[in-house]
Design brief:
Elements (H helix, E strand, L loop, with lengths): L2 E2 L13 H10 L4 E4 L8 H10 L3 E12 L8 E8 L6 H12 L1 H13 L6 H6 L10 H10 L6 H7 L14 E2 H10 L3 E4 L9 H13 L4 E6 L4 H14 L2 E5 L34
Parallel strand pairs: 1-2, 2-3, 3-5, 6-7, 7-8
Antiparallel strand pairs: 3-4, 4-6
Helix pairs in contact: 1-2
The structure holds adenosine monophosphate (AMP) and manganese (II) ion (MN) (3 copies).
Length: 285
């Protein structure tokens, strides 16, 4: 079994159609794949149809953007929660995600205005060239534009110089709250996974508060192996999974060939002693 529980298609900020993504997963030997577009369920039907042709087990998923304050006086930061094995027809989930997406276009305008202050003009039009629909506009699309227009050499360099807290092109945004995302997950019969915890730059106490908040809202799993984690971070979060008795997940977070550090299905397997998240999936299909 090769299991990959986190990736993106053109329905959010990936570059492959769901069908092309499934083809690539198949070529890489993936047996179980979760499509987890940002705040969006639109690619799941196409993915399911093609996965069944190739005998890949498709797990319906979504990566929900939430905001969270590490402390009462801290700026809200954005945290990602992957919901797995959800019912994509769940009305409260659909409604909640539509609410999150509605803010993206306006945020895009604010990002572009902030980039214009440092001499980067027309960034919104540039970024929109990379997005399938304006309501999907994300920082990844801005990042691809900044590389294409020669402002940076790589996507990683963009996120070091722009679009992140304290840097040009970062604007804070109201997403959902952790407890809202977790209540949609419950309604949709899914399992909530704290995505790429190594990416949040939290102090030890901040990380503890995030884990406690997530768990008390009903979160059951954490990404241990992630395309965003170094090998050392995979070991760290394996230990956190043991300490907090969280199930462990494994997802490449693949977005684009040649751009994502880890390809579909190419992460190392989870340590044997961890409780793997897929044991929590009820058999929906
Ligand atoms: P948004 O949902 O618009 O805030 O965009 C977030 C997306 O930007 C993430 O899902 C990643 O695809 C990408 N991203 C954020 N931070 C980084 C980073 N440090 N390196 C590479 N990609 C990043
Ligand atoms: Mn993304
Ligand atoms: Mn993410
Ligand atoms: Mn992702």
């Amino acid at each position: 079994m090769i299991i990959d529980l986190h990736c993106h298609s053109v329905f959010s900020d990936g570059v492959l159609t769901p069908e092309a993504l499934i083809d690539r997963a198949y070529q890489n030997g993936v047996t179980h794949l979760a499509l987890t577009d940002h705040d969006q369920l639109g690619g799941l039907a196409e993915a399911r149809a093609h996965a069944s042709d190739l005998a890949i087990e498709l797990i319906d998923g979504v990566e929900v953007s939430v905001e969270w304050q590490a402390k009462l006086d801290a700026d809200p930061m954005s945290i990602h929660i992957v919901l797995l094995n959800i019912d994509p027809d769940c009305p409260s989930l659909q409604h909640g995600l539509a609410g999150i997406r509605a803010g993206r276009q306006q945020r895009g305008e604010r990002i572009a205005a902030d980039l214009a202050k440092v001499g980067i003009d027309n960034a919104l039009a540039g970024a929109l060239r990379f997005a399938a629909k304006p309501e999907l506009i994300s920082r990844s699309h801005f990042a691809r534009y900044l590389v294409a227009a020669g402002y940076c050499r790589t996507i990683q360099q963009v996120f070091q110089r722009y679009l992140t807290p304290g840097k040009p092109g970062y604007v804070s945004h109201r997403w959902a709250r952790i407890d809202e995302a977790l209540s949609w997950c419950k309604d949709a019969g899914g399992v909530a996974v704290l995505a790429h915890p190594g990416r949040y730059n939290l102090s030890a106490s901040g990380q503890k508060r995030l884990l406690e908040t997530f768990i008390s809202a009903g979160g059951q799993a954490i990404e241990v192996n992630s395309g965003s984690h170094t090998p050392a971070q995979m070991a760290t979060f394996a230990q956190i999974a043991r300490e907090y008795r969280l199930a462990a997940s494994c997802g490449s977070d693949f977005h684009a060939p040649g751009e994502s550090p880890v390809d579909l299905g190419k992460l190392p397997p989870l340590p044997n002693d961890l409780f793997a998240v897929w044991h929590l999936f009820s058999n929906r299909h």
